[in-house]
Amino acid sequence: MARPKIHDDALRTRLIDIAAQVLSEQGPHAITLRAVAAEAGTSTSAIYSLFGNKGELLRALYHEGFRRLAQHLAAVPALASGDHPLVRLGALGDAYFTNALEQPHLYGLMFGPPLPELCATNDDLAFALATLQTLIDAVGDCVDAGFITGPADEAAMQIWSAEHGLASLAIAGMLGPPEQARSFARAAEQTMVKGLMHPDRVVSDVRSVHAASVYAARANAVRANR
User: Fold this and answer.
1) What is the per-residue pLDDT for 83?
2) CA–CA dist 14, 31 (Å, integer)
3) In whole angstroms, what is the distance from residue 107 CA to residue 168 CA?
4) What sign does the dihedral 34-40-42-46 (CA atoms) show?
5) DSSP 61-77
6) Contact between 100 and 171 (Cβ < 8 Å)
7) CB of 206 closer than 8 Å to CB of 197
8) Cα–chain center distance at 111
9) CB-based contacts of 89: which residues, under 8 Å, 6+ apart?
10) 144 with 100: CB under 8 angstroms?
11) pLDDT, tens digit, for every residue of 12-56?
């Protein structure tokens, strides 16, 4: 007869959520096994049983950060008949920016300097980069429609690099209050996309990125109803 599991997946998920909360409120150095276990109403032995050590708890948190980013991106509605692909691309940029500002400490863990207890492996990086597929697909739609020059994966990497820089500056408070930072980011995104567009499409189509707010509102409604 198999021995019953003392520490199950539900507790594992709860510990990750609590660690994410501690990270969000106090930063990475506030995460200790004792503090997380106490908040969860369990013992440090449960963390050792489920994760092995603090480093693996942080690794699970690293993966959780990219799962949350993927959820934000997935909440942007797919293209429907008559929708402009540049509009959806702008909405994905807005979703990325929103995710970063909503959980800056988690974003810092995902993209900041390695912590002593956590050094991302090749598998971790592959998991993180898989999050980009939604963006690559959206850029691919723009390439297929003749708005952006390809290849899509290279264009997506350029857009992501710019978006990451904007998000990092906003988190550091260097772009002003949140709404001012968001407005600046949207303007910078338009400039970036304009540089990737076919010359004969720039004048007539770059204004479509402004309409991303429509998609963003729909995405926020989707998230609110989940």
Assistant:
1) 78
2) 14
3) 9
4) negative
5) HHHHHHHHHHHHHHTSP
6) yes
7) yes
8) 10
9) 138, 139, 141, 142, 159, 193, 209, 212
10) no
11) 889 998 998 888 888 888 899 999 999 889 999 999 999 999 999
